[in-house]
Specification:
Blueprint (H helix, E strand, L loop, with lengths): L1 E5 L20 H15 L3 E7 L13 E3 L6 E6 L16 H15 L5 E5 H15 L3 E4 L4 H7 L7 H8 L1 H14 L2 E4 L2 H7 L6 H4 L4 E3 L19 H14 L8 E5 L9 H10 L1 H6 E7 L14 H16 L6 E5 L3 H12 L4 E4 L8 H9 L3 E4 L4 H5 E2 L2 E2 L2 E3 L4 H13 L1 H15 L2 H15 L11 H4 L2 H4 L4 H9 L1
Parallel strand pairs: 1-2, 1-5, 2-4, 5-6, 6-7, 7-8, 9-10, 9-12, 10-11, 12-13, 13-16
Antiparallel strand pairs: 3-4, 14-15
Helix pairs in contact: 1-18, 2-3, 3-6, 10-12, 10-16, 14-17
């Protein structure tokens, strides 16, 4: 079977370049790569189809064909889409139909038959719907995150929606997402909560009515995020972590346990809330230090001017807390620059009673805690969003869920994980290997795809659903109508 993973944002290569450096990269790319890899290991021919970029600033995405080592049945296929240079995802919408036509031409030239398509994010989902319309191929949709939730978080209103639309292109995104949902053969979600919270939103309720959903939780790459076995830590990573601890942590505190926060600097990840909770708990400070992962900033105490403006704002707030609460010598910053280095850091911290924490205000799923659990770190994670399903089931706790809006509860959760370290370490490992591996996710996809292949029927999608022409958009103005009804 030949399966296509559609992700036009153009950011796949052998080295996973820039995955933590750009808002268009990151989680959904990990998701696509890992499931595609596992499907290929099971004998299927799998192509990650993305956008070709011919741009001197992005040389990694230049060639039409690329591959990953030791994965003979998996290809990266880069197809032209609009201008040659890099475009952020908000500017891709009007080029998607051209991309789809070029995809069809590529496979016709190869003489290859496409058996099934999986569309990822709104743009990949829109492309999948177009392929179904043009060449009658069934598809699944995986939204990852949907525009309506982002609009609500930005406090969209009749007063500001035009300005927001100019920046984020919500009108086009919502139309694309509804098209992807409405004509999909199946929708994959990571948690039951994602299905109930995202797809029942008023902006999608009509399109998602009576759709088939499958809960297929993502997993950890248990080869990369393996447990410590005495010799599977790169010496350079160990040296880096030791150097950071000696540099940033007072000498009489260097044997204390370490809290590690390893997520991108973003207001919704709530780094400031974590530091504030740490600062306000004398008991926590007496037992643990705090380590914050930054990418590309070698010594934040010395200089973080290279950070982006929004990141600098977060760091300004963190350093204000450090100064106000006299945290110097208790907080460290480490630059972690790859997935392998992150896994090595986690493994090394398990030898120092390390605890992973994610205090995001909301987390749709929470793959990062699963990866940490896979290495043997206990986790303390936000209770808002998907982690509720990951870390608790049928009366069993697999990590500590905390109310991140309550500083005292964050501190309490971290202390609980430390006091019951061996218990949560073991529970985390059990949870990952019983439910959260990419091989299991891939098998879940394939089972659903096998069931669908003989049931999908040809549909004709109204042209205005995917032309994204400004005149046609007025016929389907979801955004303004929604705001008028709800405000």
């Amino acid at each position: 079977m030949r399966i296509l993973f559609l992700n036009p944002q153009g950011n796949f290569d052998q080295n996973d370049s820039y995955w933590t450096e750009h808002p268009d990269f990151g989680g959904q790319l990990v998701y696509v790569k890992e499931i595609a890899s596992e499907m290929s290991k099971l004998g299927h021919h799998v192509d990650i189809v993305t956008r070709q970029i011919i741009d001197s600033d992005w040389p990694e995405f230049n060639d039409t064909l690329d591959s990953y080592k030791e994965l003979d049945h998996l290809r990266i296929v880069r197809i032209p889409c609009g201008p040659k240079h890099f475009l952020r995802k908000e500017l891709l919408w009007e080029h998607i139909e051209e991309w789809v036509d070029n995809i069809i031409a590529f496979y016709q030239k190869e003489g290859q038959t496409i058996d099934f398509v999986t569309g990822h994010y709104g743009d990949g989902g829109l492309a999948a719907a177009m392929l179904k319309d043009k060449i009658d191929v069934p598809y699944s949709f995986t939204g990852h995150s949907l525009g309506a939730q982002k609009l609500d978080k930005l406090n969209g209103s009749l007063d500001n929606y035009k300005k927001l639309d100019e920046q984020y292109h919500f009108t086009k995104r919502l139309l694309a997402e509804n098209t992807a949902i409405k004509y999909s053969d199946i929708i994959f979600v990571s948690t039951e909560q994602e299905k109930l919270e995202q797809y029942t939103h008023p902006l999608y309720k009509e399109s998602s009515h009576n759709k088939q959903f499958e809960v297929a939780p993502p997993g950890a790459n248990t080869t990369v995020f393996a447990k410590y076995n005495g010799h599977n830590i790169d010496p350079s990573t160990k040296e880096k972590v030791d150097t950071v601890i000696k540099r940033d942590i007072d000498s009489d505190r260097q044997d204390l346990a370490m809290i590690i926060s390893a997520s991108r600097l973003d207001p919704k990840k709530n780094h400031v809330g974590l530091v504030r909770a740490f600062a306000k708990s004398d008991k926590l400070r007496s037992k643990m230090n705090l380590m914050i992962s930054l990418r590309g900033i070698d010594n934040a105490f010395q200089d973080y001017s290279m950070a982006k403006p929004k990141e600098q704002t977060i760091l300004d707030e963190i350093f204000e807390l450090i100064d106000t609460h006299d945290l110097k010598g208790e907080v460290s910053f480490v630059s972690i620059n790859s997935q392998d280095e992150l896994a090595d850091t986690y493994r090394y911290l398990t030898t120092k009673q390390g605890i992973f924490t994610l205090t995001a205000l909301y987390e749709p799923f929470g793959l990062a805690p699963i990866e940490a659990m896979s290495t043997g770190l206990p986790v303390v994670v936000t209770k808002y969003g998907g982690p509720q399903e990951v870390l608790y089931e049928n009366g069993e706790d697999y990590g500590v869920l905390v109310d991140v809006k309550d500083d005292a509860d964050i501190a309490k959760g971290l202390l609980e994980a430390l006091e019951k370290y061996a218990f949560y370490q073991k529970q985390g490992e059990i949870r990952v290997f019983s439910k959260y591996t990419w091989k299991q996710t891939a098998k879940h996809y394939l089972k659903a795809i096998d069931q669908l292949l003989n049931t999908s029927s040809k549909v004709d999608i109204p042209t205005y659903f995917y032309s994204l022409d400004e005149t046609d958009l007025k016929k389907y103005s979801l955004l303004e109508d929604y705001l008028k009804k709800t405000l």
